Amino acid sequence: MTTTDDSPEAHAFRDLLRSLRVWTGELPAFDPYAVPDAPLPLFRQWLGEAAAAGVPEPHTMALATADAAGIPSVRIVMLHDADENGWHFASHRGSRKGRELAARPRASLCFYWPLVARQVRVSGEVVTGTPEESSADLHRRSPGALAAALVGHQSEVLDSYAELERAADASWERAQREPDAEVESWTAYVLRPEEVEFFQGDARRRHVRLRYRRAGERTADGWQRELLWP
Ligand SMILES: Cc1cc2nc3c(=O)[nH]c(=O)nc-3n(C[C@H](O)[C@H](O)[C@H](O)COP(=O)(O)O)c2cc1C
């Protein structure tokens, strides 16, 4: 594939891309032979280390879903928890992702923590929380998050920004007045991991990739581990 755009802007853009670097600075070491039997403790450790290293918003992640025809879509959402049940997040049921998860309840998550050159990918089945769990999720969050959820209509076409401003102001006031307000479409989801892959970047490109896969009865804790070529 050859590039045809010869404009100064295109050249400047390509020069910028070539000038940018990854995997620089002091990167942590990662011994893939000294790891826990299951991925959760390692994930919690890595998220803690990313936060301690100053990675901004280490609890945000890309969530990839697909529609009934298999067309993929991806966006950032916040991690609300990671425990024995899986990786928790929440959104509106009627949004694009919500509709896709209803049609095809599987997803992949991807975290990237550049200051420590680490990536974590998680994939598996997605289970929808009960209305009680979804409501608890909503009310554990900040008044600002409740106000944002009260606006609703996520992923619908917006006719004008002024309409959003009016709705956001009304929702903000309602969230202050009624901190227990419910948002019917707000839904808690849990991704039950079947595969979790840890990637540690290395300045000499000898990246470490360690994958945990659900192994059923084959191992005591239900996970098998394997290294992958980077
Ligand atoms: C840092 C960040 C965090 C976000 N967290 C959430 C979230 O937790 N839940 C959510 O529904 N949308 C969240 N969003 C907005 C989504 O990226 C997306 O725009 C929205 O959910 C609509 O996606 P959809 O049309 O694919 O359903 C977040 C966006 C950013 C940039």
Automatic annotation (TrEMBL):
Cofactor(s) it depends on: FMN
Statement: the UniProt record of this protein carries the keyword Membrane: no
InterPro entries, alphabetized: Pyridox_Oxase, Pyridox_Oxase_N, Pyridoxamine_oxidase_dimer_C, Split_barrel_FMN-bd
Domain Pyridoxine 5'-phosphate oxidase dimerisation C-terminal: 186-230
Flavoprotein in keyword set: yes
UniProt domain Pyridoxamine 5'-phosphate oxidase N-terminal: residue ranges: 49-169
Coiled coil: none
The entry's keywords: Flavoprotein, FMN, Oxidoreductase
SUPFAM superfamilies: FMN-binding split barrel (SSF50475)
The family this protein is said to belong to: Belongs to the pyridoxamine 5'-phosphate oxidase family.
Record protein name field: Pyridoxal 5'-phosphate synthase
Organism (species): Streptomyces ochraceiscleroticus
